[in-house]
């Protein structure tokens, strides 16, 4: 019997890999099922054998891309009861994971920044909801324990933390050349400093006796 062709045997993983590359290059609207099939070396029929629609495939690509970043939330939850340390761990891990997985990070950020209303709603509900809820829960626990002001909504604190990390990642190639921005390539130091600002603000507060100010 003849060997089965690659078109016949190309599977789900190959299709996901091809779709991830293409969605990362041009976004959802610029990608066709035909293009994904060609990149995967298979047929449109085989793509639809594994995925009900282009939207279904897109959501699976986004969920797979986000899985690697779940580690940051898990490690923060394992960092003990000290909220400051948990926040520093979350910020540091998130930056490090974006840095070692830039293609996945760019794919996620591109879709978040450029999605229209319908895709935005779908991404929020089907991809990001669980992870964002876990981050918000971290801040809620800290607020309930008196770690920060109870009039600050936990979702706002979570958004501010995410915004700090995303901007650093997206702008790092410029930021590292600006005067004084010497923390760009040191995720641990950035996390310590940014967490301090998030928790304490910019108002001057006298340091407790015996503690210096980290630079």
Share of residues in strands? under 5%
Oligomer: single chain
What distance separates the N and C termini?
70 Å
Number of strands: 0
Low-confidence runs of at least 5 consecutive residues: 1-10
* C-alpha geometry: elongated
The profile of the biggest β sheet is: none
Helix and strand succession?
A: HHHHHHHHHHH
**Count of DSSP H/I helices:** 11
What integer is the average pLDDT?
85
Describe what you observe in this structure.
There is one protein chain. Helices cover about 70% and strands about 0% of the residues. The chain is an all-alpha fold and about 220 residues long. The protein is elongated and about 70 Å long.
In short:
By secondary structure, the chain is mainly alpha-helical. The protein contains 11 helices and no strands. Helix 2 packs across helix 5 and helix 9 packs across helix 10.
């Amino acid at each position: 019997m003849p060997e089965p062709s690659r078109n016949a045997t190309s599977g789900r993983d190959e299709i996901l890999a091809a779709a991830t590359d293409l969605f990362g290059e041009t976004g959802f609207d610029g990608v066709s099922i035909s293009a994904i099939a060609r990149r995967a070396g298979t047929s449109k029929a085989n793509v639809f054998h594994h995925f009900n629609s282009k939207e279904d495939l897109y959501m699976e690509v986004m969920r797979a891309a986000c899985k690697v970043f779940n580690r940051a939330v898990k490690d923060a939850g394992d960092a003990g009861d000290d909220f400051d340390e948990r926040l520093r761990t979350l910020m540091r891990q998130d930056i490090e994971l974006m840095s070692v997985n830039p293609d996945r990070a760019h794919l996620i950020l591109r879709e978040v920044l450029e999605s229209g209303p319908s895709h935005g709603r779908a991404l929020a509900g089907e991809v990001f909801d669980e992870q964002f809820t876990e981050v918000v829960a971290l801040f809620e626990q800290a607020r309930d324990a008196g770690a920060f002001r109870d009039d600050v909504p936990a979702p706002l604190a979570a958004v501010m933390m995410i915004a700090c990390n995303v901007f650093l990642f997206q702008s790092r190639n410029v930021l590292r050349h600006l005067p004084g921005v010497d923390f760009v390539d040191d995720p641990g130091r950035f996390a310590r400093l940014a967490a301090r600002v998030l928790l304490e603000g910019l108002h001057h507060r006298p340091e407790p006796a015996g503690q210096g100010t980290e630079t």
